[in-house]
Automatic annotation (TrEMBL):
Organism in which the protein naturally occurs: Chryseobacterium hagamense
Xref: Gene3D superfamilies: dinb family like domain
Name of this protein: DinB-like domain-containing protein
Domain of life: Bacteria
Ranges for domain DinB-like: 31-177
Length: 192
């Protein structure tokens, strides 16, 4: 796989995901606070969860990027770039809402303690952080460090794949927010 094309693909996916998330902050209060009939999270809670998950994923991404940059250069990078194959099929499930069962850690559960404007600002900063990491590892260095990802049995994934995972996780919850909004509109009739 052409690693430079993969990095560009990740950047594009991040932009689309984060731009769409940003649009949800402008929704009306009824949409943001609608409790779906399945007892799931409100849009407001989902936005907080996206921020929290990104926060913890970015800790791992930062550690991995530092490690890769310390270890970059030399023949190992050339070999990794030459031999790298991205298993797209394995990752695509992450972006599909309801595709698999996974119990998230408690520290990623929304607590309702943050204001929407604060969450919005922090998510925007997280998007920029992802782009900075990709720029720092623009020559394939992100392949040099792998960390275990337990979600859906992904196993050892590299730093680029962690960033892609973060974007796919966001996409997953975009579907959940759309489902909430659709249900609210259906149950409210035209009282939107």
């Amino acid at each position: 796989m052409d690693i430079l094309k993969f990095i560009q693909e990740i950047k594009k996916h991040l932009k689309l995901s984060f731009d769409e998330v940003d649009g949800w902050f402008g929704k009306d209060r009824k949409t943001l606070d609608y409790q779906p009939s399945n007892g799931g999270w409100t849009v407001r809670q989902i936005l907080e969860h996206i921020y929290l998950t990104n926060f913890y994923l970015l800790i791992l991404i930062e550690k991995g990027s530092k490690k890769t940059l310390r270890n970059s250069g030399g023949p190992d990078l050339d070999v990794e770039i030459r031999d790298y194959v991205f298993d797209r099929e394995k990752f695509e499930e992450i972006g599909k809402y309801g595709a698999f069962e996974w119990i998230r850690p408690g520290h990623m559960e929304p607590k309702g303690a943050m204001e929407l404007h604060e969450i919005r600002s922090l998510i925007s900063i997280q998007h920029q952080q992802c782009l900075i990491y990709l720029e720092r590892m623009k020559n394939g260095e992100g392949l040099l460090c792998k960390t275990t990802m337990t979600v859906n049995g992904l196993g050892k994934i590299n730093v680029y794949e962690y960033i892609y995972f973060l974007s796919l996780h966001t996409k997953r919850h975009l579907t959940q927010m759309k489902n909430n909004e659709s249900e609210r509109i259906r149950t409210a009739g035209f009282d939107i």
